[in-house]
Amino acid sequence: MALSRLDNLYRAVILDHSNHPHHRGSLDIATQIDMNNPTCGDVIKLSVAFDGDTISDIAFDGSGCSISTSSASMMTDAVIGKTKKEAYQLAEIFSEMVQGVEDPDQEKLGEAKFLAGVAKFPQRIKCATLSWNALKKALESGNEGIAVNLEEHK
User: Which structural domain, as residue segments, surrounds residue 133?
Assistant: First the structure.
């Protein structure tokens, strides 16, 4: 497949997730994490429900650019049914990927691997990682919800 056709496919997937995000909303009984990126105005409220050590459900709400929204949508798809450890590892793989680090485990990210091109646009990295950073906080916080300013969480 020609590179331009592949780029068009990636853009189409990203736009589809942005326009029709998966798992948008909130969960009543869940760990709640609020985060924002003050440099561009992206805001996310992440709800994560656990069944023991496994993510049984996840949802997000908020406002953000197409990269932020599509990344959150893709992240929710990638982590449902994963253990806390597996989800945290995916978040680490994603963070490295959008900074330009290649890893064969990127295939585990599902459609989120299509955001690898964000590495070419450093100003968009925080947009792409906002939801993944919120996920890390949810995994670290247990059942306590917290609000985080992304500028303070580097």
Answer: 3-152
